[in-house]
Task: structure prediction
Amino acid sequence: MFIKRNKAHKVMHKVQDIFILPRLNYPNMLVALLLLVTACKKLDLAPSDRYTELTFWQSNDNVNSALNNIYSGLYTSDRIFYNEALSDNAFTKLGVSSGVDALSSGNFTISLPRFQNDWAYYYSGIKSCNIFLENIDKNGTLGETVKDRMKAEVRFVRAWHHYNLVKWWGDVPLLQKDITPNEAKSVSRTPRAEVLQFILNELDAVAILLPTNMQINKADLGRITRGAALALKARILLYEGNRMADVITVCEQLMNDQAQNGTYALAGSYTGLFSDKLVNKESSESVLSLQYVPQLRVWGDYIDFAPISAGARTNNLSPTQELVNAYIMTNGKAITDAGSGYDENNPYNNRDPRLAATIVYDQYSWTNPDNSKQTIYIKPGSAPAGQGANEYSRAGQGTATGYYWRKYWDPNYAAPGFSSGLNLHLIRYAEVLLMYAEAKNALGQMTAGVWDKTIKPIRTRAGFTDAAALSFPGTGSNLTEIIRNERRIELAMEGIRIDDLRRWKTAENVMNGWVHGAKYGDPATDNGYIQVQLRVFDKARHYLWPVPPAERALNNNLSQNSGY
Result:
C-alpha cells in the first residue's frame, strides 16, 4: 500500500506545509513560498537545526513525504459520492459538499462555494506538483530511475487536475510551472483545446516512464502505473466524442498487449470490489484508486448512506427511482419492454443482480458486520408490530427517496462512525471494456465478437445466467441506449454519471423536471412515486460552471463563461 503513515509523513511538518500542502489557498501559498525563498537568499546559509528551501529536498524522507502528499490530494471521497447527486442517480437534501443540492436543482448563484472550492482544490494540487517537479533534482541521493518514476507520477496527477478543471470550466489557465504571486494575478484562461492537448501529451510521455501493475511490488500497490495513464487517456478521448478511433486504439493496448501495458481482468465478484478487503485492494480490475488504510487513513461518508436501523446517523445521499428503474430484468429486457416480466407490485424481483449489490430497498436483507441478518423496512406500514418506525418516516432523518446505498458498505468498518479503509476506485478495467464497446458502437463496429469481449463478461460477472441477457441483442435493438445504460449500472455511485450526461448532451433532458423516489407518495401525483426534487438544467449555461467571482476579483484577466 503506497499511501500510508510512515516516517515520511512525520518529517518536518512545518516545512511540508509551506512547500506542498495542496489545499492551501493558492495566492497565499505563493506569498508564503516567496517570502521563504527571499529570506533564504538574504542569508544564503541554511540553518543546521531545521529544513529550509536550500536543504528540504536533499532528504529522501522529505521527497517521499512530498510525493505522498500529492497522492493524498488526488481526489476526495465526497467528490466521488456526492457528484452522483449532480446527476439523475442520486439526491442529497442537506446542502453538503458546498451545495450539490443547489447545483442539481439549478438554484444557485455564481458565488456558490462549490465553484471556489473546486477551483482552489485543483490549482493547489497543480501547484504542489509544479513545486515538486522543479525541486526534486536538488536531491542527490535518490537514483535517477527512482526520480524519473516519481516525476512521471506527479505529471500524471498534474494532468488529472488540469482535466478536472477543463471538464467543469472549459478554458482554464494552463500552469506548466510554478508561478509567482504577481503572475498568479495576471494569468489568463488558456483555450480548452490547448489544455487538452497538453494533458494528452503528458499522458503519452509518462506512460513510457511508468511501471506496469505487474512491475510493482505489493507494498507499492496504489502507485500510478502505465495502465492508469492509458486508461485516463482513453476516458478523456471518449469524452471528446469525436475521437472514437483513438479510444479503440488505446483500449486495445490495455486489452490485447498486457505484457507491455499491464495485466488487467474483471474481478470475480462485483460486490467484493466494494466490500471485500482483499478483492478491493488487490484485484487486477483496479486501474487507479484512492488508497486508504484501516485505522490510519479512512473515509467516513457511509455513516450518512446506510440505513438508520443499521446504525447510520442520518441520510445525506439516497438513490433515485430513476436509477432503480435503469436496472434491467434477469432476462436482459428493460422494465418497460414487452415481455420483461416486470411487476410493479414486486419491483425488485428478477432484476439485475447489481441492484441488490448497489441499492437497499424495502425489506432488503442487510448483513451486519457480525454476519447477523436484519430486514430493512422502508415503505410506510411495512415494519411488523414492535419493529419500530419504518425508514421513510423517521422524522426527516431517513431516506428521502425510499432507498439507501449498499455499494461500498464495509463490513469491517471502524466504530463509531463507519470509518472505512476500503479503497475508492477512480478507474476500473470494467470501464475500459465499456469505453471500448461505446467507441466501437459509435463507429458502427459493434458486433457479436465485440459484445462477447465487453458487455457479456461484465454481465456474467454481475451474476446474469439467462442467455437472452448475455447474448448480442437482435436486429432493431438500440445498442447506444443499451451500452449507455450498462455503463450507468456498472459504475453507479462511482462519481462519473454526471460526466456522461454532460458529454452526451443529455443532461438537458434527464436533469429537467422531477427526480423521484419509491412509490410511497400520492397516487394522484406521478402515479404515486415520490416527487423528491424539481431539477433545472439550462443547456445554454449549465454545461460549464462560472469562474468563481473571488478569482476574477483577484485577476482581471480571467474571463467569464457565457451566461454568467
User: Anything to note?
Assistant: The mean pLDDT is 89. DSSP finds 25 helices and ten strands in the chain.
